């Protein structure tokens, strides 16, 4: 692989010329088709450029080269999530998790599992994410949203914790507002719902 061409691609990528960088990575991958990291770069840039089919093929190739490439498996899971293919997403993300647990990866897995109707497994994924990082506001939010209809006290605790960690987390204001309204605490509910609208005016 030409180090000069590779360095040129990196310079283009860092300067924001993604199409040019991608073209060079493609050429390099044709010359050295067994270099996992090249396919990871191709997949990432193709994903940013919304070239979904090429991104998926590149990440699949990275997994063929290295079956324990958690980054490629997570990327494939994310692409499947974007296409609402939740069962396929869960399978990729579970494989990635088995290789390396990461709070963000567990959140994605939880989303895929929840949308596949596997709520107990989703809850386990969110709780594990919080074991790894108790300050992860998205994990608190997702766990609270999952438990919305079953355990209101725990839901409130998680939404309030998410807002302690990020006071401008609009979805948590929204969900906490709903919960307080249902519990008859209308003044506080209104405050949170108004804040949610202020932060995310496009949220219907």
Task: Summarize the structure in words.
- The protein has twelve helices and no strands.
- It is mainly α and 204 residues long.
- Among the domains are: 1-66, Alpha Horseshoe (Serine Threonine Protein Phosphatase 5, Tetratricopeptide repeat); 136-204, Serine Threonine Protein Phosphatase 5, Tetratricopeptide repeat.
What tags apply to this protein structure?
Serine Threonine Protein Phosphatase 5, Tetratricopeptide repeat; mainly alpha; 204 residues
Give the topology, please:
Blueprint: H1 3-14, H2 18-31, H3 36-48, H4 52-65, H5 70-82, H6 86-99, H7 103-115, H8 119-132, H9 137-146, H10 152-165, H11 170-182, H12 186-199
Helix pairs in contact: 1-2, 2-3, 3-4, 3-5, 4-5, 5-6, 5-7, 6-7, 7-8, 7-9, 8-9, 9-10, 10-11, 11-12
